[in-house]
Amino acid sequence: MSTSMTINKKIIGFIFGISAAITINLLPLRGISPQGKMSLGLTMMTVLFWAFQTVQSGYASGLYLVLLIIFKVAEPSVVFSPFYSSTIYLVIGAYLIASAVKSSGLGERIAYAFIIKFVHSYKSIIYSIFMLTFILSIIIPHPWPRAFIIMSVMDVVIKSANISKEDRAKIGFSVFAAAVPVSMIFLTGDSVLNPLTVQASGESIGYIQWFIFMGPPNIIASILTCILILILFKPTQEIKINKDEINKKLFNLGRLSNTEKRTVVWLTIAVVLWMTDFIHGIEIGWVTFFIAMLMSFPVIGEVLSPKQWQEVPINVLLFLGAAMAISKVGSVTGMNGWIAETILPSYFPDNPYYLAVIIATISVILHMVLGSVVAVLGIAVPALLIFTSSMGISPVATTLLVCTSISIHYILPFHHLDVLVGLGEENGHYGQEEVIRLGTALTVVVFIVVIFEVFYWKLIGLL
């Protein structure tokens, strides 16, 4: 995208956002309080800023939060309530732990060793990308560092095999496309989206519970995504892997360093505590933050240094806080109830399969318009819960159906940040064409997976 097009897009987003906020507050909307109307206007303005990437998400989010206070839409204790929750601290801890795995060289070592043993051809490259993403998702609680570690290894594979530019884009795109479904298998697979989904449900879901509910559906989504990549992105030529250079890279890492050993110990402790949260009762966010802090101390840690605080992006924390505030403020001001009564269908079928398809359709349409997974969660889930709770449907099931639909779905890069971060020759070597090609096919996968979820959840008693 050219610089002029980017600037025009930002200006259009700015105009649309301001216009939406003013128009909504001038309209004679019935059944909504003045605070609810202002909340709706500011929410739409912010969502449009996010969708058009008018400014960095942190700036748009910070503006939204402070305007809620200035216009007295809600009390500061309500607006900033997300910052009192463990979710924010889970994100901080996750970034620090991911930084430790990356800087220690442990993640790279695991990836090289896996490639040497299992990669022999183009197909095995794609398979290995999904398997490495799965393995690293257990110990690195954020999809972006995982993807960039795997991408750095794939760059060595690409160079050693003299892979063409066209095939390089296919491999690079596969790295970031794999992050989308695989990140949903474990609760710590995506330290932003998954805990936010739990909070949106209003229920407590532990590490094991999340895997029971979401593991099998997203394993299926991962397999289907892998199959689609192999069908849609065939190599232009036969690829032969030269493992000498990869062996050399692994050899240059030397023996397992003391830092790597300490990292392994702390990661083991973290995973054990994540998996036993139903025993000790400590929320996974506090566990993650606690482990990250201890990794910095002398004698017991010495894995994290002061400079690694730079790995924690304030803009992501503000973005997450604003997205969570949309739901909270919307509930307090009556915005959520008004959206449910005004926009959503007046009737939902009792058949759970039809219901799942309708929820998925609504979620996908909202995602296409809003372009933000987090924004759709904040707007759609509270409104849908009003309907489905009266039908006796578990709020967990409703929320997870929405999460599944929008986490798998994307058409353009901005629809999913896990895909967007890899865009460009300097990152994943792919462009918008690859994203659209796979994303269009994934729309069908959305409905396959949600229908499976209904069948599976009925078997385990969630529905």
Structural class: mainly alpha
Q: What is the residue-averaged pLDDT?
A: 89
How would a crystallographer describe the biggest sheet? none
* Number of helices, counting only DSSP H or I runs of 4 residues or more: 22
Segments where pLDDT lies below 50 for 5+ residues? none
Tally of DSSP β-strands: 0
The Cα radius of gyration reads: 22 Å
Percent of residues in helices comes to over 70%
- Shape annotation: globular
H/E topology pattern: HHHHHHHHHHHHHHHHHHHHHH
> Could you give the distance between the termini?
45 Å
Structure characterization notes:
It is a single chain. The chain is 73% helix and 0% strand. By secondary structure, the chain is mostly helical. It has a domain of 226 residues. Helix 2 runs antiparallel to helix 3, helix 2 packs antiparallel against helix 16 and helix 3 packs parallel to helix 16. The chain is globular. The model has no long low-confidence stretch (mean pLDDT 89).
